[in-house]
Amino acid sequence: MDLWSVSLQTTEPFIELPFACHRPYMFPGKLALLALGVALSRSAGQDCEIQGRPEDAGDASVFLQQDFRLRKDGLAAHAVAIDISESQAVGRVSDPPNKSGALMPNLGVRVVGFGWVVFVPIVAVWVAVFLHERRVSESKRIMIGWVPLQRKACQLFCTWQSLGGFLLAGVSMPLTLDYALSLDQTPTASGLFMGIQLIASVLGTLVGNQLVVETRWNQFFVRRLLLSVYFFTSFATLAFACFLNWTATSSRVSLIWWTGFAWNFMVAFFAGIPNVIGVLLWTKVTNPGNRTIWTVIMQCSRSAGMAIGPVCFSILSRAVIKGGLAVSPRSMMAWVGVFNTWINLTSLAICVFGLPTELPAALPEAPAQEAPETRKSGEARPELLEDHGRETVYWKMFAHFCERPMTLAAIEVSITMMLELFYGWDAYHCGFCLTIMCPVGIVLAVVMKILINSGFASESSVYFSAMLACVFGAAMLFDGGNAGPWTLITGGTVIFSGTAVANGIADGWGSRAAKEGTSFGQAQFQLLKLLAICLGNFAGDTGGRFLVDFGGRNTYAGAQLALCLFGAHTAYGACRPLWAKQHEEWESEDFDAKSSGCKLPSAPEDSPNPSEASNLR
């Protein structure tokens, strides 16, 4: 019995697929196997070698036994592995990338340079700022002379700080992973690249707090300090963008990575100086009665920044690519730097043309009109608690701002990373999950504020319910084997929405629970809150991608569940003093009603409408 063996020659281990067939019936099968072998070898870029004896091939009466060997390497091995295990791919997405064999994205190599159209408008803004400030130095007056508009400019500046910072995060976040991979770094390093900027921002915040003294406020100095900071950051970000584009094809990836690391640290340090200054300026021109609504606006602006950021990145990337080949992540990061420059120029323009040289006085608080009994506001009043209760709420709100930013930052960076590595989403589109999650939180925050002001809901119940909802959202992040990307996005949306509702309430409670002249004062709360937000974002950015990189989806989900449970416990501890105070007020009202002989509202016995209530007599 003669044999004829066909093999595809490579140097790697192989998979043997033996086939035996009788010659009278399987001669077409031999041709099919030959064609299949040639096709596979061509697709793998290998040479096909036929081993055997020609006389056996020509003898039509010889019993045929074929030994078909597929040897794999490179793309051929990867193609076979995907073809065999495609049905098992979804079940393994909970494994870490370094164990599950998650594919790294294909990175472009094209570099898109800067033209004169990039530099001329930026230089024009700098020239306009210089000419305006030269005039201000002589007359001590800005272009806008109307005091109410100056006051609104101070409030809008603080709101823009919230929007602009999160807008920058939303634009750069979808690209940081590819940027790190293009420089031979790990996904964890990409999280560190984002998180280290927050550490620098904390240091800048501490320096800014020392440069300005609240009790000896010098508005002219504050204004010039803000101008200097934003002029420097706009120049530094443009210089870094040019550096990235000019070195986009360089092979010295380690030098480029650490240079960018240090440069971003420096820029973030100076960008953190205005943080406390902006909040103090806002408190000086806003009366306490209007601060709650402004905190809600600022919280919505943060969510809006995260929602708009990926959209801006998509528009920017399409404008840069222009339908051509994929652009190098380093070159695309340079264009993100140009976008960052314009964000800083916008802050510079608000300071130059909006902030006055003399501080405008805050408007007097309007006298509160007593609401009807059927429509009392559901706002909590931490300022009415005893000192012990106020201090409890104060520190619970500080704990809230230690935990929530960490949770949100991990959601933002980790979901985009998992969508790209585990589910094959494109880096230019996975950022749109933030565009899905953030608007829901904005709408819920506005609706809940309306319900609270109308008396249909209380702040404490809304706050505690929102934090409980985050626990259920964290439970949806787990992958039991069949979970897809949409369960990941849905869980993140629930956490995002609950946090958007809770953060506005928590900010207001902390400000109202603070008491001047004590260990829990207003200035201390604002500083601690900013530090907690920055450090929490750093821990979330770095820790979130570390957990996904080395633990997988379920490890990350377990950490998120633990954080959300801690947040719910914190919310319960903050609500307890308010619930106790509310219970005391209800008992006092009942006692006063009984002692004065008053009747509680009830439906008249002969009323045709049992729901109709009579007035107190």
From TrEMBL:
Region feature Disordered, mapped onto this chain: 590-617
Transmembrane parts of this sequence: 113-132, 153-172, 192-213, 225-248, 260-282, 333-355, 431-452, 461-478, 484-506
CDD domains linked to this entry: MFS
Protein name per Swiss-Prot or TrEMBL: Uncharacterized protein
The organism's place on the tree of life at top rank: Eukaryota
Stretches with biased composition (Polar residues): 608-617
Keywords of this entry: Membrane, Transmembrane, Transmembrane helix
Organism: Symbiodinium microadriaticum
